[in-house]
Specification:
- Among the domains are: about 110 residues, Leucine-rich Repeat Variant (Alpha Horseshoe); about 90 residues, no CATH class.
- About 75% of the residues lie in helices and about 0% in strands.
- It has 33 helices and no strands.
- The longest helix has 26 residues.
């Protein structure tokens, strides 16, 4: 009888535990219950049940915790600070495959909610290592959850990514990239991308594991989601240094990647353009390689076919190419890049995209008078001036528009494109505009005549410059190009002077 009583007590205890976790898991599905559960200390009550001897109780407790952690940051933080997360990971390594799959999903929820704080607990090795055990032990299915967790870990900070690398994850991720399952390839490529982005050293670790060759083999894979991650990973590797960018290029990704600039998936296109930008920014040689492969023309077509933030990496890529040398800037001009960028400057409503476009124009037009003319004749200068002077423009847009104007004006000798700026320019820009006229007019008689008939000389006389200033010197230089009576004729008040002379004139009878 005594033994039966003991067994009955344990059965009742198990039943109570089972009922408790099932009820909590059910209550956690309704948002109106969350605050009450939190105030009742539900986290500390669920924690010991994660290591319960009954698998069903463990699984239900994990399900309840996952639902709670997904609800808000405070509960996710409670999972981390309450030492619940290590127990979840421990269970992930110790239990059966079904349980691991379930807990893997819960870990992903908690990591996604509150990774930055979990970095501070000093237990990242404990959290990551069991996931890697599962990654090696269960290459089909479970590794999806394990690598999603690794990807979330790697995404947030350098320290977290370093912990993933130190735990030996990178070679395993490279192995998973080679698996036949597309979903596994996607997640592994995503994790490699997240690891690579934080520092050159982490990117080098990914490269040393042989990732580039395997990623390069998938650039034409028909799966769009996989291609997104592949191009993202290659971009994150390329961005850090010339050596890393060259290693990516040596994988013979060009010209194959250019076909993906026309991919139906916008994120694929954007990530390809980003990859080209990260490669082009480093050296003239790398930019020339892209030009030789037809990359500039392809990028110009690309920014003509899309809108908004998808355009941005293509715009910046053209700017980086043009910045390196006169010849590369001319390649952008010859490929009709200036008219397309002018369209972007007009169409795009977002200041950061207009700022990038203004910067690109500055890189194209700053080299020689020929380069500056190509920008000027596209009627870009008044638009840049307007963006610089508009009070609604962001500070970054104003700065970039001003710098672009100055760099183009210092080379521009195409006076018809400069004349409109005489009427609306700020004093800062006006100095550069007038300065260019003072350089060109003394050597070009046709330009001097046009300057008079277009009203330019008259406008020059209306400018009020400080005596002895650079602007006044430029004005004097321009006036010295004309007979004194012509300058007086177009000077303010000259018509009144003539009328006074008429009034005071005594006719000869």
């Amino acid at each position: 009888m005594k033994e039966e009583t003991v067994i009955c007590v344990f059965e009742q205890y198990q039943k109570a535990r089972t009922q408790f976790v099932q009820t909590i898991a059910e209550l956690a599905t309704r948002p109106q219950n969350i605050e009450t559960l939190q105030n009742a200390g539900v986290m500390s009550l669920l924690r010991p049940l994660l290591l319960d001897v009954v698998p069903t109780i463990q699984q239900t407790a994990a399900l309840a915790l996952g639902r709670l952690a997904n609800y808000n940051d405070d509960l996710a933080e409670a999972v981390v600070k309450g030492d619940i997360l290590p127990q979840l990971v421990y269970s992930l390594a110790e239990q059966n495959r079904f349980k691991q799959l379930l807990l893997g999903a819960q870990l992903r929820a908690v990591w996604a909610q509150h990774l930055p704080s979990s970095c501070q607990t000093g237990q990242m090795g404990l959290r990551i290592s069991p996931g890697l055990v599962c990654l090696a032990s269960y290459p089909f299915g479970l590794s999806d959850h394990s690598m999603v967790n690794l990807s979330y870990v790697s995404y947030h900070a350098f320290k977290l990514s370093q912990a993933v690398v130190d735990a030996g994850a990178v070679p395993l991720l490279v192995l998973c990239v080679q698996e036949p399952e597309v979903a596994l390839k996607r997640i592994a490529a995503s994790a490699l991308s997240d690891i690579s982005k934080h520092s050159p050293e982490l990117a080098q670790t990914v490269v040393d594991a042989g990732a580039i060759a395997h990623l390069a083999q998938m650039i034409l894979n028909p799966d769009a989601k996989l291609k997104r991650q592949v191009f993202s990973a290659l971009s994150q590797i390329s961005k850090h240094s010339v050596d890393l960018a060259e290693m990516v290029v040596e994988a013979e990704i060009f010209p194959a990647v250019l076909t993906c600039l026309k991919d139906p998936d916008e994120y694929v296109k954007k990530n390809v353009a980003t990859l080209m930008r990260e490669i082009a920014k480093h050296t003239p040689e790398l930019s020339q390689l892209i030009v030789n492969a037809g990359g500039v023309a392809a990028a110009i077509d690309y920014i003509g076919d899309c809108l908004g933030s998808v355009r941005l990496p293509g715009i910046m890529m053209l700017g980086y190419v043009a910045a390196h040398s006169e010849n590369l800037a001319m390649a952008v001009i010859v490929s009709k890049g200036v008219p397309q960028l002018a369209i972007c400057l007009t169409e795009e409503p977002e200041d950061h995209i207009k700022a990038a476009t203004a910067w690109a124009f500055g890189q194209i037009g700053r080299h020689t008078p020929e380069h500056a003319r190509a920008v000027a004749v596209a009627n870009v200068l008044p638009k840049l001036l307007s963006l610089y002077m508009e009070t609604d423009s962001s500070e970054d847009l104003q700065v970039k528009a001003k710098k672009a104007l100055k760099s183009i004006l210092q080379k521009c000798t195409h006076l018809p494109a400069l004349e409109p700026l005489l009427h609306d320019a700020s004093p800062n820009i006006l100095k550069h505009v007038v300065g260019q006229f003072s350089k060109v007019l003394p050597h070009d008689s046709k330009a001097r005549r046009l300057f008079v008939t277009s009203g330019g000389l008259k406008k020059i006389q209306e400018i009020k410059a400080e005596p002895g200033s650079a602007l006044q010197e430029y004005i004097n230089s321009i006036n010295n190009c004309y007979p004194e009576e012509i300058v007086r004729y177009y000077s303010p008040g000259y018509s009144e002077t003539l009328l006074e002379r008429v009034e005071n004139y005594q006719p000869v009878m």
